[in-house]
Amino acid sequence: MAYACFQTFLRRLESAGELRRIREEVSPRLEITEVADRVMKRPGGGPALLFERPTGHVVPVAINVFGSRRRMSWALGVEDYEEIGAEIAALLKPEPPTTLGDKLRYLGPLRRMASSAPKRASSGICQEVVYLGDDVDLTSLPVLHCWPDDGGPFITLPMVFTYDPATGKRNVGMYRIQVFDRRTAGMHWQIHKVGAEHHRKSEEAGRTIEAAVVLGGDPVYTFCAAAPLPPSIDEMLFAGFLRRKAVPLVRCKTVDVEVPADAEIVIEGRVDPNGRRDEGPFGDHTGFYTPIEPYPVLHVTAITMRREPVYPATIVGRPPMEDAWIGKAVERIFLPMVRLMVPEIVDLNLPVEACFHNIALVSIRKRYPGHAFKVMNALWGLGQLMFTKMIFVFDADVDVQNVAECVWRMGNNLDPERDMLVTRGPVDVLDHASRETGFGSKVGFDCTRKLPAEGHHRPWPEPVAMTADVRARIDALWPGLGL
Ligand SMILES: Cc1cc2nc3c(=O)[nH]c(=O)nc-3n(C[C@H](O)[C@H](O)[C@H](O)COP(=O)(O)O)c2cc1C
Ligand SMILES: [Mn+2]
C-alpha cells in the first residue's frame, strides 16, 4: 500500500514496464520539456521517464510518474482511483449504520482515520546529507527551465509546508518555486490559496514565516499537496488516510517545520514580510505564458537530501499534460464530497482541455424551477470550484463524461437568453481573459429540460430512439444479417 519512499515507487513502475530510463545526456534547459511533452501527448499518457544524465547535474530527473490513469492510481496505492471515490462516498453516507454488518463495515474506515495522523520520527533519509550556510545552492539541483520565454528555472512538483501563524495548523500546497539564485526563490502561492493566507497573516503581524519545500516521498503526498482539500484539513492527515499508514515526519534543521522523513530533497527557508520580487513569466497549465507578477521570496537556510536523490519534476503547458491525470483523480475522489454539499448532482466532468477551471459539465436530478441555477451558484461557492468559468448543467440521464453528447444536448436545449446566468466573482489567477487578475465573470448554462414554471409553455420533445421490442428483434436477427 504505502511506498517507503519515492524511489520505491519508481522501482515498482520500472518493474511493471511503466518507466523508461534515458541514458543520453539531455538538458534541463528546454530539452527535457521537449522529450516529456512528446511522451505526455501520447494517447493514455506515455511512460514515466527517468533522465539519468541531465546536462550539468548529477541528480537524475523523474518526470511523468503520475502521467497515466494506471500510474496515478498506483501512486495512491490502488488499482484504480475510482475505488477511493467509492470508499469516501461510503464513509460520507448520510444514513447511520443500522445492521451489525453495516456497523462493522463503518468501523473499518473510522479506525483507519484515527490511525492516519502523522507521527514524529527521530531521523529520516531526507536528512542524510545537510547543506548549510555557503554550501546552500539551489542551482545544484536539476531544476527545469521548461519553456523558451520562462523567467528562469522553476521547481514544478514541490510541496510547500507552512503553518497558520494564528492557529499553528499545517498546510501543504503545490505552488511552483522559481529559482532566482543559489539561495533565493519565488513563492508562487496564489492569493486564494492557503499558503498565501498564512503569509498574509504573518505579514499583518510583521513577522517572518518559516517554510519547507519538499520533493518526493510517498507519491501520495504530492497528490495531497495539489488536491483541493478544505483549508482546515491537514494534507498529511489525508495522506495518512489514503496510504493507510501514518506519515513519518522529521523536524527541519534550520526552521521549525516538520517534513516527511522519506522525502528525496527538502529546501528549508524563511519568507520575510513585505518582500516581493518579480516572478515569471512561466509557460503555465493553461497552455499560455502567465505574466510577471510580484510574489514573496523564500530565503533558503538549508537544503537537505538523501544520499542519492532523484529530483521529481513535471511540466505544464498546452493540455493534455501529466497534470491531467492528477486533475482527473481529484475530480473522481472529491465528487462524493461535492455531492455531500450538493446532493442533486449525479456526475461532474471537468474536461482536461478546459484546464479544469474553464468548463464544468454537471448532471443533476432536477426537481424544481431554477434548480440548475441553484446548482451553478452552489458550485461557484464551493472551494476551488469557485474558479469555474463556465458551468453547463444537464439532466440526470445525460452522460457528462461524453462531451459529444453534451454538445448535442446543449445545442438543442438552450434558449440562451432565458437559460444563461452571467455572474461575477473570483477567477483563477492564471486566467488571462478576465478584466483583472483573479477577478472576472462566469457564466452558467441551464441545458436541462425546461418546465412551464421556467417560462417554457411549449411541449418538450423526447429524444429520438427506437422501441425496446424492435431493438430486441433486430438483436436476434443481427448475427444473420452479415453486417
Ligand atoms: C503541477 C501543479 C502546479 C501548480 N502550481 C501552482 C502554483 O504555482 N500556485 C498555486 O497557487 N497553485 C498551484 N497549483 C494548484 C494548487 O496546488 C492547488 O490549488 C492546491 O489545492 C492548493 O492547496 P491549498 O488549498 O492547501 O492552498 C498547482 C497544481 C499542480 C498540479
Ligand atoms: Mn490545504
* Low-pLDDT residue intervals, each spanning 5 or more residues: none
- How large is the radius of gyration? 24 Å
Tell me the overall shape. Answer: globular
Helix count?
13
State the helical fraction. 25-40%
- Sheet bearing the most strands, described? 9 strands, antiparallel
Beta strands, count: 25
Share of residues in strands? 15-25%
Distance between the termini: 48 Å
Which molecules are bound in this entry? flavin mononucleotide, manganese (II) ion
Report the mean per-residue pLDDT as an integer. 96
Structural class from helices and strands? alpha+beta
Keywords:
483 residues, alpha+beta, nine-stranded antiparallel sheet, five-stranded mixed sheet, 25 strands, 24% strand, binds flavin mononucleotide, binds manganese (II) ion
Could you give a quick summary of the protein structure above?
By secondary structure, this protein is α+β, with helices and mostly antiparallel strands.
What does it look like?
- The protein has helices spanning 6-15, 31-40, 69-75, 82-91, 100-114, 194-204, 219-226, 235-243, 323-341, 371-380, 403-413, 416-419, 468-477; strands at 19-26, 48-54, 61-63, 119-120, 129-132, 154-155, 159-163, 170-173, 177-179, 184-187, 209-215, 248-251, 258-260, 265-271, 277-279, 282-283, 289-290, 293-295, 297-305, 311-313, 345-349, 359-364, 390-395, 420-426, 439-446.
- It is built from 13 helices and 25 strands.
- Helix content is 28%, strand content 24%.
- The strands form six sheets. Strands 5, 6, 7, 8, 9, 10, 11, 14 and 19 form a nine-stranded antiparallel beta sheet that branches. Strands 21-22-23-25-24 form a five-stranded mixed beta sheet, sandwiched between helices. A four-stranded mixed beta sheet has the order 1-2-3-20.
- The protein is an alpha+beta fold and 483 residues long.
- The two termini are 48 Å apart.
- Helix 4 packs parallel to helix 9 and helix 7 packs across helix 8.
- Flavin mononucleotide (FMN) is lined by residues 171, 173-176, 188-190, 193-195, 226-228, 314, 316, 323, 326, 384.
- Manganese (II) ion binds at residues 171, 173, 194, 229, 231, 235.
